[in-house]
């Protein structure tokens, strides 16, 4: 990684350098929110002349816009404030989950400009039907984006399961095995929203996207660069962020906290093993323990929240018990990874107030660094439901920020 | 990380660039084993003239040596083979464990040139006495190193516990709390082996050093860049290597797999929690389960090995049970972290043949990626006992390789 020599002589490919520096300048404006050319030059360590030339190109290609003058009031353009464009290139995120589908269009600044969620039971439905439904939602989102002069340059589809090389290897709670998710989605979408150039489609695990949304857009991760993200759904998704980057594992399958074991002789999990955490602290297990119809989905979670709010003893006991079991497993994960924080997402978010005491009890008792005492504030509620779609759209936006030149001619296409 | 601009103009500090390139050249020779100047130039992407000048400095300062001529037979120096020096700068590693102390001197090529191990029960002995004993062993190692013209430029002390900022925060199995390990060791050593310039002392967790030894010097990690390392001692140490680098966690406390929970209502652990893995698969627990005196240390492990070898039913049952419990916890760690391999170190190494079937059974059943089937070869025996000391010495060697200029004037000192 660090083995690249600092070039002593010339020989560095000028086009490559310029492309790299275009990204540096765009990112500098993006990260600052707004900035003058002079501030950008200071920040990235290039000359003002070089920055001006790069900014010109970014303005022409619609990645940046100019706003008014700064109060420091030097005449002419150098004092003009730059912002990333609110029109043009954008990202489309698509989240397939067990009981909903969500799509989101995010602009270059990271704002979610379109968001559509459809509650639907995807269990027992064929992958192509589910992905067809998701493509319909996506087509509606693309139409709304077009009305706002936004042009998504890629779609990122996320699924609660093991995803690699464009294929869902296994998504136990959807009942999917070896589903070519990218191809199926692209096919459905191009039939619904024909385009001169078909939208490139990529894919990943849903918890990864939710964790990235938390990292990029969440309020709870301010200053936190390493965290464990848990998302309570029908199953339990997990993702690890280390030093501001997703830890993907050697084969892209890291973060499967829902299949850590609570009791080797416990109930059978759809994954084939006994006693996985999902069987104790997943949505169905928790609703069942509280005496609520387990197929009620989001309505069931709302009902559970109502019951704990009015101190229903069965509901409180169920949440407390799930919290203890979750706490034991999360303590193990914290002992292994030593993160700064643990974020509770998905339906855990709505229950954090009641879950947290039991989880924190175990953390305080079991984490041997001693950094997880009850008042440590390291256990936090994460972003609201559906943000995996925003994180997925953000993945596309990050691709644009990393190499704007690669997307320079896409803006006016369709 | 990637936000450094590729410098368009000059302005890069020439001394810094040269220092960086000295390391590049030294590492290139180190990694290749031996190399001509021309091969080095190709590998690092610098001109042959630049490489020759850097090589000259590295030869003068004793980091490199020249050997014979290559068969390709161009006349003069360019065809001479370079190797890293087998004399001069070296690393001193010191491993404090519960029932032994080990020291190791490693040369720049990574060979362990001195190795001393003293079996001793450190439980209930004061930290200053233990560190004094380690310093005696280190002084003997330094004398042996001097006889071989090796000059350790730093000592790295590793301890089975949480180590940060030169202090052992907690080492439950040694009974240490808040021990200023670096200061105490440096003090003892300078009294025993006075030097014009005292040896700089650094410190870390013992399992981290053992994992690094496995990464740098182990045979089992050939081509493996991400692995979980487990070391069975009185306690159970753990470390995570991701993409060839130690994953330290946000506060340096990652890898504490010994305190992942098997049963929340299980036996009390010295850490204060109940049912930690150590209480099931640590040395004392395993010996007790097999009916062997738990304070027998290495002799106890040897006895256990003898008994499983002759198929003693109690011993086999104890190892099999520990393997299942270890397997459940390790499966959870693999689901979370998705490594390429799991390495069994410490006393597990001697028992791998009998432990592995049970551990592999759980891995095959519980790891949802499906990559850990019984014949996957991903569970492996690690390097022999004591290699944490070699890894610790290697940490110093890596510091020299990373910035030889910082150590250029140390060679002839004492």
Automatic annotation (TrEMBL), chains A, B:
Pfam families associated with the record: ROK
Protein name: ROK family transcriptional regulator
Family designation: Belongs to the ROK (NagC/XylR) family.
Taxonomic superkingdom: Bacteria
InterPro entries: ATPase_NBD (IPR043129), ROK (IPR000600), WH-like_DNA-bd_sf (IPR036388), WH_DNA-bd_sf (IPR036390)
Species per Swiss-Prot/TrEMBL record: Streptomyces adustus
């Amino acid at each position: 990684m660090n083995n690249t020599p600092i070039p002593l002589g010339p020989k560095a490919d000028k086009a490559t350098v310029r492309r790299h520096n275009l990204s540096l300048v765009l990112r500098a404006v993006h990260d600052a929110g707004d900035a003058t050319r002079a501030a950008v030059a200071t920040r990235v360590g290039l000359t003002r002349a070089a920055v001006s030339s790069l900014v010109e190109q970014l303005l022409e290609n619609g990645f940046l816009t100019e706003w008014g003058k700064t109060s420091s009031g030097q005449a002419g353009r150098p004092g003009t404030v730059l912002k990333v464009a609110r029109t043009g290139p954008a990202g489309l995120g698509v989240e397939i989950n067990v009981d909903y589908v969500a799509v989101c269009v995010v602009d270059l600044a990271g704002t979610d400009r379109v968001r559509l969620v459809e509650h639907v039971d995807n269990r027992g439905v064929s992958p192509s039907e589910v992905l067809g439904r998701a493509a319909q939602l996506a087509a509606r989102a693309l139409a709304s984006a077009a009305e706002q002069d936004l042009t998504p340059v890629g779609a990122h589809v996320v699924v609660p399961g093991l995803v690699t090389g464009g294929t869902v290897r296994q998504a136990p709670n959807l009942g999917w095995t070896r589903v070519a998710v990218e191809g199926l989605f692209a096919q459905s979408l191009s039939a619904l929203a024909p385009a001169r150039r078909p939208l490139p489609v990529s894919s990943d695990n849903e918890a990864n996207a939710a964790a990235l949304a938390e990292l990029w857009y969440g309020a709870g991760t301010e200053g936190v660069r390493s965290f464990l993200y848990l998302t309570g759904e029908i199953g339990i998704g997990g993702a690890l962020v280390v030093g501001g980057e997703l830890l993907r594992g050697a084969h892209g399958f890291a973060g499967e906290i829902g299949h850590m074991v609570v009791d080797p002789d416990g109930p059978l999990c759809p994954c084939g093993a006994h006693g996985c955490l999902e069987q104790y602290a997943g949505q169905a297990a928790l609703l069942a323990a509280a005496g609520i119809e387990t197929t009620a989905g989001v309505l069931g979670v709302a009902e559970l929240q109502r019951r704990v709010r009015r101190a229903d003893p069965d509901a409180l006991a169920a949440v407390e018990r799930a919290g203890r079991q979750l706490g034991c497993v999360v303590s193990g994960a914290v002992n292994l990874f030593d993160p700064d924080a643990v974020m509770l997402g998905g339906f855990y978010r709505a229950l954090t107030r009641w879950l947290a005491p039991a989880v924190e009890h175990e953390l305080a008792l079991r984490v041997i660094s001693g950094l997880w005492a009850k008042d440590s504030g390291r256990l936090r509620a994460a972003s609201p439901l559906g943000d995996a779609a925003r994180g997925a759209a953000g993945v596309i936006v990050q691709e644009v920020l990393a190499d704007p030149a690669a997307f320079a001619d896409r803006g006016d296409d369709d």
